[in-house]
## 1
Amino acid sequence: MLSCKEVCHFVSESLDQQLPWYTRLRVRLHLFICKACRRMVKQMALLQTAAWFYGATDEQTSTEENDTLSENARSRILKQLQQANSGSADHNA
Amino acid sequence: MVKVCAMHNNPNKNADVESDPARWLQEYGDVLFGYALKRLHHTAQAEDAVQETLLAALKARASYAGRASEKTWLVGILKHKIIDLIRKQARETTVDDIHALSDLSTENSIDELFDERGHWIQPPQDWGNPEKMLHNQQFMEFFRRCLERLKPAHAQIFSLKELAGQTIEEICNELDVTATNCSVMLYRARMSLRRCLEIQLADENSGEL
């Protein structure tokens, strides 16, 4: 009998590729008697769908203000660029 | 816009040498950051990726022929930087992950869910109707928050699989890791996400949020 932990791993794997028939059978047997794992299966599937939803809304809202560089990051990057720029200028000279 | 083009036709001009990187940051900083954040789900890493991109662009400036638009050129560099970053992290974390999975005594949030015989210590709770959850803004906000809290490599592999829709083979090839490592990382990502959401939902129901 598979443990709940093993079932979790196989269920995750089954979302990415087809499992061998005997593994599927063992997983199903476990799920038949384990309510906790049946919930986990539903939730794992929900994660996948939630990711699609999230991706879809992400596209629409990608230009919103939360995807902007913070002032801190901006000035830090600018500093690095200026250093690199003057470094290469010195090198060229 | 005309001015921008004029500057590009004159790469040796001193003012150009000094102003270009700053102008890239000014004009494309947010676009690049948004692109990186969507793929990395990690603010600090997305910022680093922007910095690496602009530094690389600075070095490669002479070879930029102006065939592509500046933005396309910069996003192209950024894509490579993101893949490099994910690849590096996939290599760094995978050894730990495999180890953690086989070592039950390890102090890891996922293994704490199970006892030594692999049975649930903290069995999954009822989340209610999944259909409803997806249309619940609060749930999607929790989802976003939990995705950000994942270990970066886990968040990245999860988003390559579930957001970018790549197959497991494509991901393994791109990250240059074995199929087993890929599947372990995805397992860990999903279990951490699931657990994180469960905690958030429980907090909400108990009125703590």
## 2
Amino acid sequence: MGEEAVRRRIQELLAGGLATEVCPRADTPESVQGLIQRLREEAGEDLEARLVLAGFTLNPVLHGGIEQACETCMYYLVHRRWCELPELNLPVEPRWSCRLWRI
Amino acid sequence: MANLLWLQGGACSGNTMSFLNAEEPSACDLVTDFGINILWHPSLGMELGDNLQRLLRACVSGEIPLDIFVFEGTVVRGPDGTGAWNRFAGRPMKDWVAELAQAAQYVVAIGDCATWGGIPATAPNPTDSTGLQFLKRQKGGFLGADFRSKAGLPVINIPGCPAHPDWVTQILVAVATGRAADIRLDDFQRPKTFFASFTQTGCTRNMHFAYKVSATEFGQRKGCLFYDLGCRGPMTHSPCNRILWNRQSSKTRSGMPCLGCTEPEFPFFDLAPGTVFKTQTVMGVPKDLPEGVDKTGYIKLTVAAKAAAPKWAEEDIFVV
């Protein structure tokens, strides 16, 4: 499946009510490492599992006074519209969000 | 002619290895061109046993004028303040250090261990190690905060794990040739000529830093190592990207995050699991921001820079 098709599939899953683990956000280095570990061990290449564990949403989450949108995340490639976190490695949209957001 | 004595305490000899690889000037140049008489060095000295003890005692007494006392490694004070875990030439090394530092015109600490304790002094510091005039960020160390050598200077700290060879030889030449007064020291007694700038100064990844494009895995030639891989280049004072290593490269140029080894806190976070090669964040924002940048400014800058990032910044431009 091409990148655009995967992006559409993710959009459909999230819009269709896929329940993702939006909270708690990965606020500490320990929680980030824990989530990364879970992504490696529990999700692997499974698209839905990755979306659920990472807590993807179709809109930015406001957390601690900061809007956590993909477009400001350090893992986001602006031109490719891509999340480059190795454990996610997904096509995304700028206004999506996940709990592994970091700036 | 300036007499130089070099001793090692709690050390791995890394700074000696570095020193022996110096190029501008080289260790040989110190002797042949700059009038430095190396009285003794752990890897170069000829004296052993009684002869070495006689030499050291002559330095302490002033019979042999000691111009420069160089110390590499920590001062080991354990167990129970005796220093017995690091004996040298018939007595605890710490006793030699105390007496030689008083006898010397200049005292130079080489490497993190001698400057602020380095890895041996990392918690729980089982050998009760300390640097000559600092223990981590706290001034004092083994010689005390008020220590001044005979020439009136505090310990000259040349940190690094190891220190770059040319930092060492250039400072030794300055001292030996009567230009010590030209050496300006920062708050941690590091020569400003080397340690006022940052590791990031001159880094080839600065474009990626500017456009907030991150390297997310080792081996990527694109991307900045600060955002995810724990690089301390923007917070670390060193000229590693101005005075290159082996005249070729630097850690960050070759894809290795800076570990901040010229700063008193090195190794950071006491080497707790998950803290090495991983940028530590709180609510998604790096715990340690580039020096002088606050959280609000960092976020504003990042949002703007990322939005402005050109396509090439997200690609590998260092192609063969």
